[in-house]
Amino acid sequence: MPKDHGIGASQKRREDVRFLTGRGRYTDDINLPGQAYVAFVRSQVAHGILKGVDTSAAEASPGVLRVFTGKDFEGVGGLPCGWQVTDRFGQPMQEPAHPVLAQGKVRHVGEIIAAVVAETYEQARDAAEKVVPDIEELPAVVDMRAALADDAPKVHDDLKNNLCYDWGFVEENREAVDEAIRNAPHVTTLELVNNRLVPNAMEPRVAIGDYNPGTDESTLYTTSQNPHVIRLLMGAFVLGIPEHKLRVVAPDVGGGFGSKIFHYAEEAFCTFAARQLKRPVKWTAQRWESFMSDAHGRDHVTKIELALDKEGNFLAVRTETLANLGAYLSTFAPSVPTWLHGTLMAGNYKTPLIYVNVKAVFTNTVPVDAYRGAGRPEATYQLERVIDKAARELGMDPIEIRRKNFITEFPYQTPVALVYDTGNYHCTMDKLIEIADLDGFEARRKASEEKGLLRGLGVNCYIEACGIAPSNLVGQLGARAGLYESATVRVNATGGVVVMTGAHSHGQGHETTFPQVIAEMIGIDESMVEIVHGDTANTPMGMGTYGSRSIAVGGAAMVRAAEKVIAKATKIAAHLMEAAPEDIELKGGEFIVKGTDKRIAWGDVCLAAYVPHNYPLEELEPGLEETAFYDPANFTFPAGAYACEVEVDPETGKVTIDRFAAADDFGNVINPMIVDGQVHGGLGQGIGQALLEGCVYDENGQLLTGSYMDYAMPRASNLPFFTVDHSCKTPCTHNPLGVKGCGEAGAIGSPPAVVNAVIDALHRAGHTHVTHIDMPLTPARVWQAIHG
Amino acid sequence: MAQVSMTVNGKPVTGEVEGRTLLVDFLRNGLGLTGTHVGCDTSQCGACVVHVDGRAVKSCTMLALEAEGAEVKTIEGMANPDGSLSVIQQAFQDHHGLQCGFCTPGMVMSAAALLAENPKPTEAEIRHYLDGNLCRCTGYHNIVKAILAASGQDVSIAAE
């Protein structure tokens, strides 16, 4: 029987009721009395000298309160970067200034040149059209190789060149890897592009700055995955507002996928302008602004070499990547192509020697940062593609070559720094073969053939590292932030529980899953537990939600705080029942003296804590509220095996996903229904990357895919029903729930499965000259490959 | 400014709008009905779908003045009279057909219009009908499943 309550129950989401009835409260739904509106004037050229901005006509426009330009921000800090990478020569990365509003130069289409604040939104927009920037256009650098040429135009004049860093990992292994590849019986080489993506959370970004001159307090309402991080970065580094005078609220947030982690110029602007004008200032992005101001994702160009012996054992991996960072360093951008990418190059395999080189490049494009998976999809894609190619070259089965190289003993020290605590890759592969019905493939292939379609099967594995930690280690790697999470568990006098968490839900369902954990621990109904998140004023310091960390790190902090609460409540119960605390157990919402019929209800103990008449006041404070900070000992390592079946129409090159199966090991699972949903969503985005999505700039740095007319988002008719399973469970060994995180797996594991399937379809049809097609696999690209 | 009158969720309303004011802006800002969302500026995403005289309409694609005299229904008007979730809303909750909730109002309104036209749609018909509604969270799996369930059909085809 499936459980109805507690850990492991597929409880329906309580937050759905407000979303389904139009009662969600997203940032744009908030309107403050006296609110003014801002419209930004954004650069239409990719690179140029900003000689001046004529704001006179805009200032004279009806309803305009003030027009701001870069000059107004000269005494204000720039947007900070939260991660400093050290290059392979021991030098810090080149780190350019990142002004809130452009100063002296514009460096990408969409950069903010001026901001018009007016009484109404329409007046602000009308006046913004009257702002005239004087820009002397310069040649733009868009292509990464061109950007690294000696005579390339420089994105930042005060830097040596357009190279942010040249990173080697593990640098000491470089020569050994070179030698292993030189001497290997077989080397498979693959050059590929990990296409640039636009995250496209359905809710565009919004910011509302508010200021109370009476108390000197500022409030920012913003579409953020991590309000405390925004408070720290904006308060300390940009505007100089101490945290006790700055509140950041991220209410219901309509999806993030990484793009709402970062501290953006618009947030700082609205907070700053509200202080200047002493009125609330609101900005709501139009979608065209999202395309040219939300941090983009991926955009790697890679060459990977895999050395093998004749039996298919992996001997070494060498990979060289150019990573596009765009025009400025977004908040966590430097970490993505390095520590979130290079450390994953072992994959699920016992490759003894690995060397990763990454050159990160500035270009005249929108900044690039973490997007669902962040570095791990880039690692997985190249590794799982090159393994497929190697299997083909050696005449081996793609599943067998993977099985042969699986890591099977844990803990496992990879040659790229990580220690995998646990896993069982044969289990997920076995499960995949079952749920994907791989035995039935040949019959399906024949049926497709009869319709004139080419059916192919792509299989791959993935591993990811979630819940990035511990803080002291990531500090050594260049992080300028801690990566713990915190929680306060407050028990009310009548027994209800409020959990204040630093994690933030923007679709993940924390308001449902977190109470399931508390309900399990105490033995009360979930309806007695409420979750508070997204407001720095009433939650303890938190690092927010990204990197699939909420339950593994935030959930663990909540468990630690709840354990403290239970320990104290047990002492109170012991006093009330005149027993020793160690003789008492909490079960089914009651404290029971073991081996007796003496018991007292949870609610009675809570009441005693707040009405301490019969209470050990000399030993215990009244009240029942505890806070815990949890800093994980290690990453968690979800892993799995995915299978995709495609049909390719050889007449048109069109690829249709017919079947997709995912077998994941997420360790313990709190709410299976929600975990399924997380995988589905990740698959949607990963398949989108593989088949449809691609952010395109022309050679002048003009964004050609700046709307949903041009950027192909996956639609319902592009995707099949998925078959997902997470019954292989190897619980994480170092967090209290044994959980690993599930948010990014689908987006990490699915792109190689799709591409492997298409290549397989073409090979089965005799098009053996096609060894690779770059994503997105549009009909034109596939048709050209067939006829190439 | 011009005056516009219409019936929204069964209630007559009147407001002052500019000629360029979109129906969605009138609903959100004029009437405070913020359940209808704006996710794009090219009429692609469908977060703003409402019913106008019984038909699903992207309310970002229609001027408020064009709705003069019309019967408009928004997500706020979808629940049963006693406040409980309608069959479609309940199916979305039962089958986890929403995550962040931002596209959800438009999805529910489109689903209701589909089932009004075609009470037993196939999976392919559902997917085709939803081509004007973007969701970035769910991969559409549970949305399609919820609509199948709301139409009283077997959902075992969508295993998990």
Q: What amount of the residues of chain B lies in strands?
A: 15-25%
- Whole-angstrom Rg of chain B: 16 Å
Q: Mean pLDDT across all residues of chain B, rounded?
A: 96
CATH fold assignment of the largest domain in chain B:
Ubiquitin-like (UB roll)
Could you state the CATH homologous superfamily of the largest domain in chain A?
A: Aldehyde oxidase/xanthine dehydrogenase, molybdopterin binding domain
Strand order of the largest sheet of chain A: 3-5-1-12-9-10-11
Largest sheet of chain B: 5 strands, mixed
> What is the CATH level 1 assignment of the largest domain in chain B?
Alpha Beta
Count of domain modules of chain B: 2
Mean pLDDT of chain A: 97
Strand order, main sheet of chain B: write it out: 2-1-5-3-4
Number of strands of chain A: 28
Structural class of chain B: alpha+beta
Oligomerization? heterodimer
β-strand amount of chain A: 15-25%
Low-confidence stretches of chain B: none
- CATH fold assignment of the largest domain in chain A: Aldehyde Oxidoreductase, domain 4
Distance between the termini of chain A: 56 Å
Spell out the key features of this protein:
heterodimer, A: 788 residues, alpha+beta, Aldehyde Oxidoreductase, domain 3, Aldehyde Oxidoreductase, domain 4, seven-stranded mixed β-sheet, five-stranded mixed β-sheet, 28 strands, 28% helix, 22% strand, globular, B: alpha+beta, Ubiquitin-like (UB roll), DNA polymerase, domain 1, 5 helices
Summarize the structure in words.
The complex is a heterodimer of chains A (788) and B (160). Chain A has three domains: 27-139 and 202-255 and 260-293, Aldehyde Oxidoreductase, domain 3 (Alpha-Beta Complex); 300-469 and 634-787, Aldehyde Oxidoreductase, domain 4 (2-Layer Sandwich); 484-630, Aldehyde Oxidoreductase, domain 4 (2-Layer Sandwich). Helices cover 28% and strands 22% of the residues of chain A. A seven-stranded mixed beta sheet of chain A has the order 3-5-1-12-9-10-11. Chain A is of the alpha+beta class and 788 residues long. In chain A, a hairpin with a 2-residue loop joins β22 (584-587) and β23 (590-593). Chain A has 19 helices and 28 strands. Chain A is globular, with a radius of gyration of 27 Å. Chain B has 160 residues and is an alpha+beta fold. Chain B folds into two domains: 2-77, Ubiquitin-like (UB roll), CATH 3.10.20.30; 87-150, Orthogonal Bundle (DNA polymerase, domain 1), CATH 1.10.150. Chain B has helices at residues 23-30, 87-94, 104-117, 123-129, 141-150; strands spanning 2-8, 11-17, 49-52, 55-58, 71-73. Chain B has a five-stranded mixed beta sheet, sandwiched between helices. Chain B is elongated, with a radius of gyration of 16 Å. Classes of the chains: A alpha+beta (788), B alpha+beta (160). At the A-B interface, α1, α17 and β28 of A face α2, α3, α4 and α5 of B.
